[in-house]
Amino acid sequence: MNKGKIGVQMMMLKGKVEELGAYETMKKLHELGYGAVEVSQIPMTEENVAELKRASKDFEIKIAAMSAPLEPMLPGAPGETLTDDFDKIVNDCKTLDCNFLRIGMLPLNVMGDKEQIMAFIERAEAMADKLFEHGIELYYHTHHIEFQKYDGEYLLDIIKNNTSKLGFELDVHWIQRAGVNPVEFIKEYKGRISLLHLKDYRIGKLDIKEEDLKDMGKFFGKFTNLIEFAEVGEGNLDMKAIIEAGLESGAQYFLIEQDDTYGKDPFDCLETSADNLRKLGYADWF
């Protein structure tokens, strides 16, 4: 039977890496039964790269994907970029035996401007071509902003139709937040996805205090912002249908991500997600 590999998006563990180090963080993931990670928002220092490599070998955890912005998130912002640090990033990929790189989001200063976005995408497509020569595939991670419509067409579809080398890392929470059915949408991207973010979508508890009722602005602020990032299986998304659609559409890695754990230990959240996915019948995907 055809199957994928379930992993963890390490963005949610950046605090743990600071506290415990990359090696011990990976050891804990191994204890929870995970066998793949996507590295994001973790500084790729010499030490971290070495620790990730050692942990990958010792615990048989595949480095499924790594992150690198094409350009700074804002002009002059610090950090490595594919434009300025191409050789270093390619070298890190080779060191960690990783052939997927992903751009986490659009630069903040081009958001909302279609012409600037499409110029950025053109540069990303050229970079995908350049990386391909090194055996590395470039993916673009989606949010809800790409579902803005221009002349009746989603920005994301415009991006897809103007690229061929660039792949897409679809994030099911953000697709849902955009008002689109994740199961059906994933099918439309068949052949363009290898990485899928499993992120559930929950309506949180409305916590109303007496002073909120005296200020309607405050009340409706809470009322309209009830959407939360949930552990996989703890929210409202049909995860089984999502995973099956992903597999059918070419996804190889199904990466758990939770942008906010609302004060809970991220390892506990990852344990809950893993338990729920095992109950859904994906125990042999770990």
Automatic annotation (TrEMBL):
This is Sugar phosphate isomerase. It comes from the Bacteria. InterPro entries: IolE/XylAMocC-like, Xyl_isomerase-like_sf, Xyl_isomerase-like_TIM-brl. Gene3D superfamilies: Divalent-metal-dependent TIM barrel enzymes (3.20.20.150). It comes from Virgibacillus profundi. GO terms for molecular function: isomerase activity. It holds the Pfam family AP_endonuc_2. Coiled coil: none annotated.
